[in-house]
Amino acid sequence: MTASHPAIALEVGDELKLPELKTIQGKVFTQADYSKRFTIVQIWATTCPFCRFQNKNLDELLKKIEPKQVNLILLSVDKNTKVVEDYLEKNQYRFDVVMMTPDLAKRFGKRRWIPELYVIDPKGKIIQKDMGQMIDLDVYDLARFAR
Predict the structure, then answer these.
(1) In what order do the strands lie in the sheet with 96-99?
(2) What is 16-27 written as a DSSP string?
(3) pLDDT tens digits for 47-64?
(4) How many CB atoms lie within 10 A of CB 104?
(5) Which of 28, 96, 98, 107 could form a disulfide with 3 if both were Cys (CB 3.0 to 4.6 A apart)?
């Protein structure tokens, strides 16, 4: 299955070709970035208490790995970019955030809840999917995808 079936949620083993993504911080992720390293995408919202807890752990994960060893992209479903920017500033988070678009929503398909976290290998295959809040150790275990 590919991401062309928007009503169906993506699962482990599916292919997901991410488009070029521009973060609210101005960074651009390209096909070259995706093909060089694993990409971790979390779908989240500033109002989600489980997302807030997991974001703290994802920020800690970034401190444990070398820069550019993994693509970590947080995909916000919030409607207002300023709310997300204020959230990042208040919490002093360093991760890259992209705002959800209709195209991205179609590629990921139907969500059951947030946060949803996907690990995508350099060939574009989903190799891990977690729905809901992960425990601390599971988030830190994502460091195994850094290279």
Answers:
(1) 96-99, 71-76, 39-44, 116-120, 126-131
(2) -----EE-TTS-
(3) 999 999 999 999 998 888
(4) 18
(5) 107
